[in-house]
Amino acid sequence: MSRCNGRFLHFHFFTILATLCFLSSLAVLLIISPAFLRQQYARLSADADTFSPRERLELALPAVAYLDSFQSPETAVATLQTQMLPDGTPLYTTSELDHLLDVKQLTDLIRLANLVSLLFLLTWTSQNQKGI
């Protein structure tokens, strides 16, 4: 295999890998967005025994804001700790808050993977397209 063909294969391999990483992480980030949440909750019907779709949305938006925050998980979770149900009980238990710390760490990692893969695609492809 000539040097040019090897470079060509590396270029395509890394471009495909970065594209898959970017698109899959973008899909996750779009799903945990306020716009997606509003669209999904608008499709729900009212349930007499629980919360209305509007009430559910009001309770869910702070969780999405928490996941979307650039604060550390330990700092950002304070907003969720203060969230209460209409009867005055905390919305989240301690174990749920612990779980949300893990979820926030994962979403921060996904956000980083999205940014790194996008930067890679922008720089790698612009630098290597001319040489192929």
Secondary-structure element series: HHHHH
| Low confidence ranges | none
Total of DSSP H or I helical runs spanning 4+ residues: 5
> What would the principal axes of the Cα set say about the shape?
elongated
Number of strands: 0
Strand fraction band? under 5%
Helical fraction equals: over 70%
What is the residue-mean pLDDT, rounded to a whole number? 87
3D structure, described in words:
- With 132 residues, the chain is mostly helical.
- The chain has one domain.
- It has five helices and no strands.
- Helix 1 (3-31) packs antiparallel against helix 5 (94-128) and helix 2 runs antiparallel to helix 3.
- The longest helix is centred in the last third of the chain and has 35 residues, at 94-128.
- It starts with a helix and ends with a helix.
- The relative contact order is 0.14.
Short summary:
The chain is mainly α. Helices cover 74% and strands 0% of the residues.
List the helices and strands and how they pair.
Blueprint: H1 3-31, H2 34-42, H3 53-68, H4 73-81, H5 94-128
Keywords:
132 residues; elongated; mainly alpha; 74% helix
